[in-house]
């Protein structure tokens, strides 16, 4: 019997934001990859808002996206 593929679901709002803004995605991904003690979630969100991005993800979405590698975060790759 074959193992069934796991449906991970759609990207979170943070993943959608990155896909919609490729011009800043590398910088944002670098900030998201940094430890939260160095780059807090609130700082990432505040910078994106200050840059004028109206579709900036909320704090909980940023936090969940950063936890994706731990298995308890969003469904983004």
Short description:
By secondary structure, this protein is mostly helical.
Describe this structure in words.
This protein is an all-alpha fold. The chain has a domain at 37-68. It has helices at 13-20, 25-33, 41-50, 59-66. The longest helix has 10 residues, at 41-50.
Overall geometry comes to globular
Average pLDDT, rounded to a whole number, is 88
Number of strand segments: 0
Helix content: 40-55%
Order of helices and strands, N to C? HHHH
Unreliable runs: none
For the record, give the distance between the C-alpha atoms at the N and C termini, rounded to a whole number.
27 Å
- Assembly type of the chains comes to single chain
- How large is the share of residues in beta strands? under 5%
> Helix count?
4
Radius of gyration: 14 Å
Q: Indicate the structural class.
A: mainly alpha
* Sheet with the most strands, sense and barrel status: none
Structure keywords:
single chain, 77 residues, mainly alpha, 45% helix, 0% strand
How are the SSEs ordered, and which strands pair?
Elements: H1 13-20, H2 25-33, H3 41-50, H4 59-66
């Amino acid at each position: 019997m074959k193992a069934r593929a796991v449906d991970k679901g759609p990207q979170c709002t943070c993943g959608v934001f990155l896909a919609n803004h490729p011009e800043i995605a590398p910088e944002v991904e670098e900030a998201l990859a940094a430890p939260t003690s160095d780059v807090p979630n609130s700082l990432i969100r505040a910078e994106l808002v200050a840059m004028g991005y109206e579709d900036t993800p909320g704090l909980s979405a940023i936090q969940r996206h950063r936890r994706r590698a731990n298995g308890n975060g969003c469904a983004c790759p």
